[in-house]
Amino acid sequence: MIRFEIHGENLTITDAIRNYIEEKIGKLERYFNNVPNATAHVKVKTYHNSATKIEVTIPLKNVTLRAEERHDDLYAGIDLITSKLERQVRKYKTRVNRKNRDHGIQDVFAALPDDQEIKATYNTEAGKDDDEDEIEIIRSKQFSLKPMDAEEAVLQMNLLGHDFFVFRDRDTEGTSIVYKRKNGKYGLIETTEE
Predict the structure, then answer these.
(1) Where does the Sigma 54 modulation/S30EA ribosomal protein C-terminal domain lie (predicted)?
(2) How many CA atoms lie within 13 A of 51 on its CB side?
(3) How does the average pLDDT of the chain come out, rounded?
(4) pTM exceeds 0.85, yes or no
(5) Which superfamily, per CATH, for 3-133?
(6) pLDDT score for 176
(7) Tell me, which fold does domain 147-190 have in CATH?
(8) Taking 90 as the threshold, does the pLDDT of residue 38 lie above it?
(9) Short-list 86, 59, 84, 58, CA closest to 70
């Protein structure tokens, strides 16, 4: 069962809003196999012009679902974000499960009896066949990870004119990534061993 952590910014999350979010996003549960600790992190923000932004992140064992939507109507935005998340599931379900089966890993997404119907709906919505939507890696690079701190990594990233930079954290000795956010500020992703 999906648990919900719902937070509002410039907005009080009423029972009606909470129930609507839980009802709509909770329907995604049918796509999952055994995920007893799934938590949907939902952020709802209201702006001065009464527009709302909804962000949903659902971290699972081998995949993280994330979607963001801005809309003038909160409830319509929740509907749109649910559709986005469903499209993500449909898009990755076949690929992730196929690769996991090849490696002997249990599928994250459940097989549904209406998969053919879902696939047909997705192909119609996307206007593409799965074959046209294949991921093609056209370039590969190798480089050594240099020990540095996050600030030095940001400087190096800016010197190269990139949006992200991978480095070995001098303090933790783990692999980390700095990246430039849409608002012009920077983010840091730190990796951990499982």
Answers:
(1) 133-188
(2) 5
(3) 80
(4) no
(5) Ribosome hibernation promotion factor-like (3.30.160.100)
(6) 93
(7) SHC Adaptor Protein (3.30.505)
(8) no
(9) 84
